[in-house]
Specification:
With 136 residues, the chain is α/β, with parallel strands linked by helices. It is built from 5 helices and 4 strands. Helix 2 crosses helix 5.
Length: 136
């Protein structure tokens, strides 16, 4: 079995893929490195990542300025072991054999960096908890 096949894959989904799911994916990539395959997507992706989110992550030494919101695809869900939704409701396709988590988090859309920081910190805590659950 290849190393890639043993890596758990996690997909973070929010509506716009411009804030919460981008932060979660960035933290998981930052903390787990190549030990986890990380994806993020949105059911109705925005044109750009929220600048306040980019700024809030930069304060933690994580640069997502080159990221762009991506559309949620059935293939992305099928390719993931864990699917974490963040307020996208019924728009996320559900497949048997996947683990689904729903993280209730405030939407940073339209918020300044001061409002984004507590959301960022809540996401970081949840990602650290997820890593512990995955044994990484």
């Amino acid at each position: 079995m290849s190393n890639a096949a043993q890596r758990p894959s996690v997909l973070f989904v929010c509506v716009h893929n411009a804030g919460r799911s981008q932060m979660a994916a960035a933290f998981l990539t930052h903390l787990a490195g190549d030990r986890v395959q990380v994806r993020s997507a949105g059911s109705a992706p925005a044109d750009t990542v929220n600048p306040a989110v980019v700024e809030a992550l930069k304060e933690r030494g994580i640069d997502i300025s080159a990221e762009t919101p991506k559309i949620l695809t059935t293939e992305a869900v099928q390719a993931s072991d864990v699917v974490i939704t963040m307020g996208c409701g019924d728009t996320c396709p559900v497949f048997s054999g996947k683990r689904y988590l729903d993280w209730q988090l405030d939407d940073p859309a339209g918020q300044g960096v001061d409002a984004v920081r507590p959301i960022r910190d809540a996401i970081e805590q949840r990602v650290r908890g997820l890593l512990a659950e995955l044994g990484i």
